[in-house]
Amino acid sequence: MLRMAHRLTSHHRALFSPKYLSGTSAHITTTSYFRAPFEVKDNDDFQKRVLASTKPVLVDFHADWCTPCKALSPRLDAILGEKNGLLELAKVDVDNNPELAMQYEVKGIPHVFSNKKWKGC
């Protein structure tokens, strides 16, 4: 199975070699406005990027060791993708930001909330 994955990777790599792309444009376009989730670094970062945001921000309190958090993460990414840039996702690691977790009364993780009511989102 590992060999097969290597063959597929090699095959895909060959398609993007100069031999196949000569004289063509290799631009990739998309209609999705998916924005990657951002990691909140500290309380000041939370104030600037979440509370002061003009867009609704979904806030995910999580930890690297939390299995339910890992299971929830792709679902939150899917919601973010469906909203086409109308919503942002902030990730707060409770191990790195225990003050924020206490301030927002996070009793267990994953813990998700929004900074605003979602109107037309």
Describe this structure in words.
By secondary structure, the protein is α/β, with parallel strands linked by helices. The protein is built from five helices and four strands. It has a four-stranded mixed β-sheet, sandwiched between helices. α4 links the parallel β2 and β3. The radius of gyration is 20 Å and the shape is globular. The N terminus is likely disordered.
Secondary structure layout:
Elements: H1 2-15, H2 18-21, E1 38-39, H3 43-51, E2 57-62, H4 67-82, E3 88-93, H5 98-103, E4 111-114
Parallel strand pairs: 1-3, 2-3
Antiparallel strand pairs: 2-4
Output the number of helix runs.
5
Shape, per Cα inertia axes:
globular
Work out the strand percent.
Answer: 5-15%
Mean pLDDT: 79
> How far apart lie the N and C ends?
43 Å
Class from secondary-structure proportions: alpha/beta
Largest sheet, strands/sense/barrel: 4 strands, mixed
Task: List the strand order in the largest sheet.
Answer: 1-3-2-4
What level of helicity do the residues show? 40-55%
How much is the radius of gyration in Å? 20 Å
Low-pLDDT stretches are 1-8, 27-32
Q: Could you give the count of β-strands?
A: 4
What is the N-to-C succession of helices and strands? HHEHEHEHE
